[in-house]
Amino acid sequence: MSNYHIKHLEEYYQVYRKSVREPENFWEEIAEEHFMWRKKWDNVLSWDFSKPEVTWFEGAQLNITENCIDRHLATRGNKTAILFEPNNPNEAALHISYNQLYERVNKFANVLKAQGITKGDRVCIYLPMIPELAVSVLACARIGAIHSVVFAGFSSTALATRINDSDCKMVITSDGSYRGAKTINLKGIVDDALKDCPCVKTVLVAKRIESDINMEAGRDQWLQPLLDEALPVCAPEIMNAEDPLFILYTSGSTGKPKGMVHSTAGYMVYAAYTFKNVFQYRENDVYWCTADIGWITGHSYIVYGPLANGATTVMFEGVPSYPDFGRFWEIVEKHKVNQFYTAPTAIRALAKQGTELVEKYNLSSLKTLGSVGEPINEEAWHWYNDNIGKKKSPIVDTWWQTETGGIMITPIPFVTPTKPTYATLPFIGIQPALMDENGNEIKGNQVDGRLCIKFPWPSMARTIWGNHQRYKDTYFSAFENKYFTGDGALRDEVGYYRITGRVDDVIIVSGHNLGTAPIEDAVNEHPAVAESAIVGYPHDVKGNALYGYVILKDTGESRDQNNLRNEINQIITEHIGPIAKLDKIQFTSGLPKTRSGKIMRRILRKIAHKDTSNLGDTSTLLNPEVVQDIIDNAL
Ligand code: WT7
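^ thats the input. predicted complex w/ WT7 below
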C-alpha cells in the first residue's frame, strides 16, 4: 500500500523523504492505487525548468470526471456529493447525491456537445455559487472542453479580456445572482462584455433569479429546456495526461492577466492527495470550503479534490454577513461541518463582531480548520483557534497559489504541531528553497529569503495560455533552474516556514491577488489623471488595502476631490471589479522617481505605512522635494 493517508509525524517524515529521494516511484504508487486510468503512463516525470517543460504521467489516458463521479457510484451512489446551501437561509439546502451528480453532469455534457463544443474548445463559465457552476465545470471536463471560470465579481471589461485571451466559443452564465440582500444582473454584465467578444457564438443561461433579461436571438439560450431534453449518459472523452483541463486567470504585476493552464492527470493526483491529507477527510465527513469556485481554491478544494475522494463538499451561495454575521456558524451547526476552510480576511471580519454570534451555535462537529489566501496574523489565528476550534481543532495554514494547483506548505492536522502564523512544513513531494538576492540558495535554519521550489510537483501549471515566454520570464528566470513564487518567507529553527508576503508588485487584498499595474492603468483612464502609483498598506480586516497616489493634469480648473475619488473608483470598478477599489487616494504634485524615471515605490509604501522614520537616501532622486510634500499631505 502506498502512503495515501498520513497519520502521524514520523510517517510524514518517512513519506516526505521517500517523495524527495524517489519522486517517480512515490508518485507512481499514489497514482496507481488511488485513481482510475483508461491507460497507464509510459513515463512518470520528465522535466526541464530551463525551457520550462514538465510532464507527469505521460502516455496515460483518463477522464477526471470518471475519477470524481463514475467510480464512486457503486459504493457511494446515494451519498451527498454536493451540499448546496442557498444565499437565503429560508430556502431549502439541496443534497446532490453522486448518482444525481452523474446525471446532471452527463446531461450538461450532452448539451455542450449539441451546441457544438468539442475537445479542446474553451468555454468561459461566469456563474454565481449555484450547483450549475460545479456541474458545468465537470461537464466541460467530461467532454474534454477546457473550462475558464471567471469569478462572477469581475466586471464586464475584465470578463471580456479573459474571454478573448483564450478565445472562448461559449459563455455559461445565469440571469442573475443573489449576494446577501442584493441581486446582481449577471446577464447584463455578460451582454456588455460580449460587445467586444466576436469569438463567442453561444451563451447558455441558467435561471436563478426572477428577472426580465435580454436574450439575444441566435446566441442566447435558456439552459433548463436544453437539459430537459438531453440524454442522461455521455461517454467520457478519453484525455491524455497532459491535455489541459482548465485555464484560470491570475493577476500579474504587469500587463494583462495570466491564463494559467493546468494539466489533467498531474493536477488530479495532487489535488486529490493533498485534499485527503491536509483535511484528514474521513468517509461521511462534511467538508466546507467557503471560497468561490471562481478562484483556484474552489477548483481544487470544492470541486476536484473532494469529489476525487468521494467526499461531501458544501457549496455556499451567500456571504458571511447575511442575514447576520452568524451565518457561517449557523451553517456549520446545520450541516454538522467537520472541516472548515476559509480566508484570514473573513476570520478578521467575523472576529470584529465579537463572540456572541459564535456562541449561539453548536460547533462541536468541527475537527479541522483551514486558512488560505494570505498570511494569517497572530490575533486572527488565536481568535479562530479559541472561539471556533475551541482549542481542539488544529488550524491548517495552507500556502499555495493559482500557479501551484494545490497546497504546497501546510501542517497536516493531528500530525504536524501547529505554530501561529506559520504554514509549517512542505507537503509531501514539495522541495522549497530560500534564495538570496544574488541567486544563491540559503541553507540552514533561522534564515529568510525569496521562496522558490526546486523540483516539479504534479499539479504545477504547465504554461500561460498563448504566452509560454511570459511563463518562463515570470516564474523561471529570476533563479536558475527554480520556480520562483513571488513570495518572501522565513524558515525558523525547526525548519517551519512562515510566508512573509509578496516581494513583487502584487498586493493581496482580502485574499484577492491584485496587480498594481492594471489598477494604475484603470486610474489613468480618468481624463483628469496624469499619472498614478498604487501601493498596499496594512488593514485590520482586509490584510492589505490600496493606497493610490494620483497626479492630476494641470487644467487650471479646481475640482472637488471627493468627486474625483468616486469617479476614479468607479472606473476601477468598471475595468476590474469592486475588489480593486482604492481605500485612500492622495492627490499629489509629483511622484518620487529615480533618475531613470522609475517610480520609487519603496518610499511610497513607507509613507502609506505611516513609517517615515527611515526613508533611506532620497537625495539621488530626480525630484527629492516631492517626498516631504507627500509626507505632509499623507492620508
Ligand atoms: C498568493 C497566491 C492559494 C489559493 C488562494 C490564493 C498568498 C496564499 C497563503 C498563506 C501566506 C498566502 C501568497 C501567494 N497566500 N496562501 N497561507 N499564507 N500567504 O491564490 O490568488 O494565486 O494568490 O496568495 O502571497 O503567492 P492566488
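The first strand starts at residue 43 and ends at 48.
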